[in-house]
Each structure stands twice: as structure tokens, then as C-alpha cells.
Amino acid sequence: MKKIVYLFVSAAMFVACNPPPAAEAVAEQIVAIDSIGTTYFIDTAGSILNWTGETLSYQHSGTMRLSEGNLTVKDGNLTAGNFILDIKSIKDLDLTNPTKNAYLVGHLNDTDFFNTKLYPTGKFVVTGVTALINDTTGNTHLIAGNLTLKGITKNIVIPTKVAINGDAVEAIGNVIVNRLDWGVKFVSTTVFPNLKAQLKDKAIKDEFKVVLDIKAKKG
User: Fold this and answer.
1) Domains and CATH numbers, the chain
2) What is the 3-class SS of the chain, one letter each residue?
3) Model confidence over 77-116: pLDDT tens digits?
């Protein structure tokens, strides 16, 4: 039986007054996990990824769908899993002007950001899971996994609240991800410091917030 490889980083749960921890992206990890157990298939209609991107003066928030995936539970614990992100499903939820909304979504799909013509999907594969005991933020697990976007794979750790109830599993993870780790460099003043004077408070921050709500059911 394959053993779980653990890779963890201390983190805290996202709340309004206390933002989620930033995920320290490291090199892709070997997927060596215990995948023997009960399989729960992700409910793509009930699962969602919520995102928030910010400049220094305003922000945009939206969603992205999951197209498929599964979780493995053994002896009451989450031990493995993976899912596919449908990047082309990205939506903005705060712009009420249809023209501005369509422009932003189109830009996010373009080469400046996710380049969905070439990379229509992303993927997350669990490489390690550990249970948290008496975590003050409400998280129950730290989930490490390889996140692939735009053909680039990095390993990150997501603080997650996992609830296993009979035939259903729900996992809610909150984390801050740095877009530069996946080659999204558009108007980043880290990459292009000469833009600071020109962009001022409209410079797009490198980090964006992700709240991942996954629901899965037995097959």
C-alpha cells in the first residue's frame, strides 16, 4: 500500500478580518498517496471556486466551475483526491455593466491572464493530507497538492475544513495564491517596477484570494 507523503505549511482560516494565508508555491511533488478507500465523486453542480483579485484601490470577485474530480476517504479521513478546473467558466460577479463585465472576462481568458485557448483547464492533485487537532480557526486539515495552471505545476498547501457525513463529503479551503508562480505577469509592479509611477493605485496585486467549496458524493 502506498504511503502518504506529507508536505505542510502552517496556515490560518480565512475570515473577513483575518485574510487567508498565502500559499508558498514550491516545486511539483511526487504523488505518493494512499488512494485505497471509498471514492466520492465531486458534485460539479454544487461545487465552486470563488476568487477575488485586487488593485490598491478596488477589487473584482467571481467564480470558476469544476468539471470533474473525486476524493478518497479511508477510516474516516480524507487521503487522496483530484479535480479539474474549467478555466473558461470564469465569471465576474461585481460588474453590473454588461459591456465592462464582458471585457473583464474576455481579458481574463486572454493571453495576459489564463490564455484559455491554449490552456482551457487547470488541475489540482492531492499529494498529502494531515489532520489538525483543535485548530482555533476551524480548519480540520492541511491539504497539499500539485496545482497546474497554464502548463506550470507547483505544489501548494490549502488550509481546509473537511466534513464527512455518510455518503457526502464537503471540503472548504481558503488560501492566497501568487499569480506570478504560474506566469501571470500582467501589469505586475514586481515584474515591471517601472510601471509603479504610471499605474499608481491601479496596479494589480500579485496575490489573489481563493475560496474553494467542494461537495462530493459516493458513486
Assistant:
1) 26-218 (2.40.128.110)
2) CCCCCCCCCCCCCCECCECCCECCCEECCCCCCCCCCEEEEECCCCCEEEEEEEECCCEEEEEEEEEEEEEEEECCEEEEEEEEEEEEEEEECCCCCHHHHHHHHHHHHCCCCCCCCCCCEEEEEEEEEEECCCCCCCCCEEEEEEEEECCEEEEEEEEEEEEEECCEEEEEEEEEEEHHHHCCCCCCCCCCHHHHHHHHHHCEEEEEEEEEEEEEEEC
3) 899 999 999 999 999 999 999 999 999 999 999 999 999 9
